[in-house]
Specification:
The protein is built from 7 helices and 13 strands. Helices cover 29% and strands 32% of the residues.
């Protein structure tokens, strides 16, 4: 099923129950998460198949995502408070070299993003982050792998358009995700920005299960001597599962 920007996975399941009344009383779950600001394919298990969740948790994924250079947030995406900015923007040749270097590493350790559900000492990282206590713990890592990666596009976009898109997408999110703080932070950033162009790289990557695109954007920017965050993530494939199972939704 396709999850929309702004939806949580649970809201997506609620939408499915409305659109498919015949499934309203069925047990449902999903295998693998997507952040509220991400869109794309998710596997929904219905009825007795909910017991098979582990089978689908660690499948390879393919993502297309946009990295915005020059600004970092505490959540590594636009649904966060800005923590750092930089005037340095990389050349496209440098981005391609860095992507090839990541690809050549085979498996490598990736730090979990601060705003994620990974539990540490009995509570998720996002709770440690909200309490301002991340300095009290050691950030966990896990091994991931990039099978293929490609720079699809590198362009400058008008600040006005990027600004309006970010604010609009934050507004699509329900629940308590610090939306007001994020909006205020972005409004301040764009008001004080001294350029009318933003540098954005669009990347397509085939990666192992458990790979965090948000964290990769931060690590890529750091490797390039600047800061960055993702402003868009779309999951386009999950382990080829769409080839053998019915896909629902657009």
């Amino acid at each position: 099923m396709n999850k929309n920007i702004g939806e949580t996975p649970l809201e997506m399941l609620g939408r499915l129950r409305i659109e498919r009344p015949d499934l309203e009383s069925e047990r449902m779950t999903y295998a693998g998460r997507l952040d509220p600001m991400a869109s794309g394919e998710m596997i929904v298990l219905v009825g007795d198949s909910v017991h098979d969740k582990e089978k689908y948790q660690n499948l390879d994924k393919i993502y297309e995502f946009q990295v915005m250079f020059g600004v970092a947030t505490d959540s590594n995406d636009v649904l966060g408070v800005i923590t750092e900015t930089s005037e340095k923007t990389p050349e496209d040749s440098a981005i391609e070299i860095s992507l090839r270097e990541f690809l050549a590493r085979q498996k490598f350790p990736q730090t979990y993003p601060p705003y994620s559900s990974k539990p540490v000492d009995g509570k998720p990282l996002w709770q440690w982050a909200r309490e301002g206590r991340l300095s009290e713990i050691e950030m966990p890592t896990h091994d991931v792998q990039i099978h293929e990666i490609e720079l699809l596009n590198y362009e400058t976009k008008n600040v006005v358009n990027i600004h309006s898109d970010i604010i609009k997408n934050i507004g699509l999110v329900n629940g308590d995700f610090r939306q007001s703080e994020a909006v205020q932070s972005w409004q301040k950033y764009f008001t004080e920005l001294k350029t009318d162009q933003i540098h954005i790289a669009t990347i397509r990557a085939h990666v192992s299960g458990g790979f965090y695109v948000r964290q990769f954007a931060v690590d890529l920017a750091k490797k390039l001597g600047t800061v960055g965050c993702v402003i868009g993530i779309k999951r386009v494939s999950i382990g080829g599962i769409g080839d053998i199972m019915q896909s629902y939704g657009n």
